[in-house]
Design a protein that fits this description.
Blueprint lengths: L2 H23 L5 H25 L7 H29 L3 H12 L7 H9 L4 H24 L13 H14 L6 H11 L2 H14 L3 H5 L2 H25 L3 H11 L6 H9 L4 H29 L1
Length: 308
């Protein structure tokens, strides 16, 4: 797969984001519609996509590979946490905003953006690996993420781990591990429902773009530095280590996509709940999402060159 092919596949995702921008600017979509749509993605379509890719991949994925991906996911978050702790003071010295930068280093958009990118570039079968990253993500968010923003850890925060994404991720894992064969009509149902996820999620990103100040997104130099570090430098630093544990080209590509995903929405949501200024985080989410259209092909091209 050439870098040009990868670029155009990722560019298709950007065009879907622009479709969301268009329907918002023309009044076809408002805040209520976006809220309801996002709720459907989280509670219905994304879980169905996770299950669909599991039922269609039964017998195609080894348990050894799944175990390896799980360990890589854990290591990735450890590196992200350490990077956030070390680098966040260079972006902001004030307490709450420094914590926001720490969150932005750690919590990427593995689901909304990661799933469409992996599915579009490598194929739906590889989304099961994204599911493993998402399981680790949930655990890290409801332990490290909550305790970082609240200043202490409470077991009550773990209740947030019980959500459709986590539940259906576990179901997907069991389907693969136990090699459960499901009837054809169930495969068709979950596949069709899951296929709604990617365009709808990207349209939701377009809604956010349409309601954001372009100056706040593109006029902050420090955000470009943050994007370069998060989207390129850290993933490329992890590539040699990744190459040491596996020679599987497709697996390396999945992991590199996960390493290079843009900043996710969870830090923004948590900051809003805590009454913390989240304007910088909102701008960083949009900027890194747009820039990943260009950085993901670069990461994949470099990873292919290193492996081959």
């Amino acid at each position: 797969m050439t870098i040009l092919t990868i670029f155009f596949q990722v560019l298709a995702l950007l065009l879907m984001i622009l479709a969301g921008w268009y329907v918002t600017k023309t009044g076809m979509m408002d805040g209520h519609t976006n809220s309801q749509m996002s709720n459907m993605i989280v509670r219905v379509f994304n879980p169905m996509l996770i299950v669909a890719n599991a039922v269609n991949a039964v017998g195609q994925i080894s348990l050894r590979t799944m175990g390896l991906v799980g360990m890589i996911a854990v290591f990735m978050f450890l590196v992200f946490i350490l990077s956030g702790m070390v680098l966040s003071p260079f972006f902001h010295e004030e307490g709450q905003q420094r914590k926001m930068y720490q969150m932005m280093f750690v919590f990427s958009n593995l689901g909304f953006i990661g799933i469409p990118v992996v599915s579009g570039i490598l194929g739906p079968a590889y989304v099961i690996y994204v599911t493993e990253f998402m399981l680790v993500y949930n655990f890290v968010f409801y332990t490290y993420g909550i305790s970082l923003m609240e200043g202490s850890f409470t077991f009550s925060s773990l209740k947030g781990m019980i959500n459709p994404g986590t539940i259906f991720s576990i179901v997907a894992m069991l389907v693969i591990i136990l090699e459960i064969q499901v009837p054809g009509f169930i495969k068709t149902t979950v596949t069709y429902l899951g296929n709604v996820t990617s365009p709808m999620a990207l349209i939701a990103v377009g809604f956010t773009l349409a309601n954001s100040s372009l100056k706040s997104i593109f006029g902050q130099p420090r955000l470009y530095i943050l994007a370069a570090v998060k989207l390129l430098l850290i993933p490329l630093a992890l590539l040699p280590l990744l190459r040491m544990v596996t020679a599987d080209v497709s697996l390396i590509q999945v992991c590199m996509i996960m390493f290079g995903m843009p900043i996710g929405n969870m830090p923004l949501i948590l900051a809003t709940q805590k009454g913390i200024d989240s304007s910088t985080c909102s701008a960083a989410i949009i900027l890194t999402t747009i820039l990943c259209v260009f950085t993901v092909p670069v990461l994949l091209a470099i990873s292919l060159a290193v492996v081959v």
